[in-house]
Give the backbone structure.
Amino acid sequence: MLSPDGGKNVWMTSLQVGRNTPRQPVLGKLPRMYRADGSPIRALLVDDERALTNLIRMALEYEGWEIDVAHDAEEAVARFRADTPDVVVLDIMLPGTDGFGVLEQLRDGEGYTPILFLTARDSVHDRVIGLTAGGDDYMTKPFSLEELVARLRGLLRRSAYLTPAADETFTVGDLELVCASRAVSRANEPVALTSTEFELLRYLMRHARRAISRQEILERVWNYDFGGRSSIVDLYVSYLRKKIDAGRPPMIHTVRGVGYLLRPAE
C-alpha cells in the first residue's frame, strides 16, 4: 500500500502481505499493452502532490507507458488538449478548479478518454458523485500501486483506443448499441454512458435473456476482481438503470441469488 508517514506528504510501497508473507513485485512484469497502432500507451497524471505523481510516473513507466503530468486544473486541460492521452488519473482536490471541474472540461471534446479519480475523499457519497459525474473508476488514498496499475489496465482494455472497435450492433427491444461509434439509444433517444457503463451494457446485451452472475460480470467486464467485492457490479447496474430504464418499462432485472438479466421491456 501507499501510506502517509507521520502525517506528512511522504508515501511508500509495501513489499509484504500480512506480517511474514513476502510478495514478489509485479510492476513491469505483466504483458505490455500498446495502442492500436503499436505505439506506447499515453497517460496523464493530474495531482498537486509532486512526490506522489513522481512515484506513479515511475510505476507506469515500468509498464512502458509515456507519462505526462499536470499539477493544477489549467495545466491539466492544456496538456490534455495538446496531446489527448489514452487514460487520465485525476485528483479531485486540486488548487483552484477541482477535479470535477476539470472532468467537465475534458468531456467537452470529441472522443472518450477513460478517467480514474484518485483522491483522499473516501466517503460513499464522494464515490457516487465521482462516478456519476463521468469518472470511470475511483480510488482513495492511501492506495496500492499494483492495484492502480491493474485498474488502469482494465480501463484500457475496455477503451476504444486500445483495439479497433468491433463492427457489431446489438438490438434488444427498443434498445440499440453500436460498437463502432460507441453509440447507445433507447426508443431512438441517445443515452450517454461512461466507458465502464458502455462495456457493462454491451456484455448484458450480448447475453440478453440470460441470467448472469455478478462474478461473471466482474471477470468479463472488469477483468479484475476488486478483491471479490461484487458490490461494484451492483453500483454500476444502478447507474445503467437510471439511464436506460428511468421513466420507461424496465429492461434490466435482478435475478435473486444469481445476478442480472437484460430482456426486452414487457
